[in-house]
Amino acid sequence: MRLLALIAALMISATPAFAQSKSAPVPNVPEALEALSERGAQLRYLGKEHGMDGWIAIYQGQEQYYYITQDGKAFVTGLMFGQDGRPITIEQVRTLQQQGGEFLDLLASDSPAAQSLEEVKKETSIVDTAKTKSPAERMFADVESGNKIRLGQSTAPVIYSFIDPQCPHCHEFIKLIRKDYIDKGLIQVRLLPVGFIQGSPEQAALLLAAPNGEELFFKHLDGDASALPAKEGVSTQAVMKNMAIMQAWKFDVTPLTVYRSRTGEIKIIRGVPKDIQGMIADLGPAGAAR
User: Fold this and answer.
1) How far, in Å, are 64, 202, 231, 263 from residue 228 at the CA level?
2) Where does the pLDDT of residue 255 fall: very low under 50, low under 70, confident under 90, or very high at 90 and above?
3) How far is CA 7 from the centre of its chain?
4) Which of 26, 130, 155, 238 has a CA between 20 and 30 Å from the CA of residue 87?
5) Which domain holds residue 81?
6) Distances (CA, A) of 151 to 67, 84, 182, 189
7) Residue 131, domain member (yes or no)
């Protein structure tokens, strides 16, 4: 009831739903977001960064972030990070919050926008500027902090793999190691689902949210088209974090595998490993990963 009351208050307010600070001009709702606005979404302008107008929308209690292309006819969704890992979207939301108003009260308490910047920094080490760890160790810590599901036994040695649900090379990789290594308890894979293909972010989000993610992923690999539907309206924030980790460390291919070797080195394999047996033999113990 509180949520409905807040929405009603916003809709009858004399201030337009997408009003912004008087000190900065606010563009009209872009053509790409008009349909969302017509369905009742509450919009606020976040500002322009890297040539793209940013907007936050709240619809049915869920928030999403949009960055509009220059022609105004298309958009990309998710959090924007600078090349140094600066959480641009979160900073934009903090600025919006400082302007007051009830709009951000509509946010869920666990949403990225509702968290303080310090909490976001604690949640992901992408923005950690500490110099106490080597770049390889900081990268490994970021990967460990990603959103993931486990394939295999929890007592087996670990690899971390960024996987797009629709990537054929990702399918090939998991199929190669599934029967002889995962099923036999010789390795566990911590999948970090990402989405670079249309529909993939939603599939990856469902994979992370499901209580039986391993079962669903294997059904998906086996050709069950209903196992991971690309449902519209699914929150993809957890997937965006994984993609932000890839972007921060300039990972540009899937599958991409990271692991700690027996000697403590951090290893990266881009694409399908050419020597799977060698990778298995090189793995450290299960306790070397979280």
Assistant:
1) 21, 9, 9, 38
2) very high
3) 27
4) 26
5) 2-123
6) 34, 32, 7, 5
7) no
The answer on 73 and 162 residing in a single domain is no
Domain assignment present for residue 132? The answer is no
Is the same domain home to 114 and 156? Answer: no
Vertex 69 angle, CA 68 and 71, to 5° = 115
Contact criterion met (CB below 8 Å) for 212 and 240:
no
Using only C-alpha atoms, the chain has a radius of gyration, in whole angstroms, of 21
Whether 109 and 179 map to the same domain: the answer is no
Return the axis-axis angle of helices 213-221 and 200-209, rounded to nearest 10°: 140
Across the range 211-224, mean pLDDT stands at: 94
> 163 and 267: one domain?
yes
User: Domains in the chain: how many in total?
Assistant: 2
Tell me the residue ranges of DSSP E strands in the chain: 42-49, 52-59, 62-68, 75-77, 149-151, 158-163, 188-193, 256-260, 266-270
What is the rounded CA–CA span in Å between residue 261 and residue 265?
Answer: 5
- CA 80 to chain CA centroid, nearest Å: 11
Handedness of CA 40, 41, 43, 48 (dihedral sign): negative
Cβ atoms 159, 286 nearer than 8 A: no
26 DSSP assignment: -
6: helix, coil or strand? helix
What span, in angstroms and rounded, lies between the C-alpha atoms of 240 and 200? 12
Q: Are 75 and 67 in contact (CB under 8 A)?
A: yes
End residue of a domain, out of 123, 150, 167: 123
Does pTM surpass 0.90? no
**155 and 91 inside one domain:** no
DSSP 8-state assignment for residue 288:
G
Regarding whether 100 and 60 lie in a shared domain, the answer is yes
The answer on 177 and 64 residing in a single domain is no
Q: Does residue 245 share a domain with residue 202? A: yes
